[in-house]
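sanity check this record:
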Amino acid sequence: MKKIGVLALQGDYEAHIKALKAAGAAPFEVRSRDDLQKAEAMVIPGGESTVMGSLLERFGFLDDFRERILAGMPVFGTCAGLILLAKDVEGEDPAAGVVARSPAAQEKLRRRQPTLGVLDVTVLRNAYGTQIDSFHAPLVTSIPTVPTLDGVFIRAPKIVRVGSNVEVLSSLKSDPVLVRQGTILGATFHPELVPGAGIHAYFLTLV
């Protein structure tokens, strides 16, 4: 079975471990550089992207993680995980309490929120509102094995720009919610919270 690491510094990593087991993988928790080296692929869960990025830096494997992805290691990020993968992040600057969109404000936000910056998209943090604004929505995908699914959106980011090398696999209205760039997969919603593990099984085909 494929050894899939799940970043377990913060967030709902246990739900991803359960989904990966259902999809036929051998998942395990990743909390250090040594753990990372054992993984054939990685999953980054939802949670608090700023906290996860800061912890990756503090524990000394943010750069190693980025280098492995750039070298071809498959990775799947959901919600906050997608934010960590994105090249550009917009949204509320936690320190200034404002929406950071100008180049200077973006640079300050990047310094406060370390990211991997490997997926050519721009995301807007918390675009759908707070926790009480969470919702479900039916989604249609271009994945033959998962033609439809229930999208669970919890304090979800919104993808507001997609690079030319990024494939949109599913959209909600006109907004991309599931994208792929080579072996990098990103979702603004939480597929680990619905039965079936279809998206996780699809991710395993990229490994």
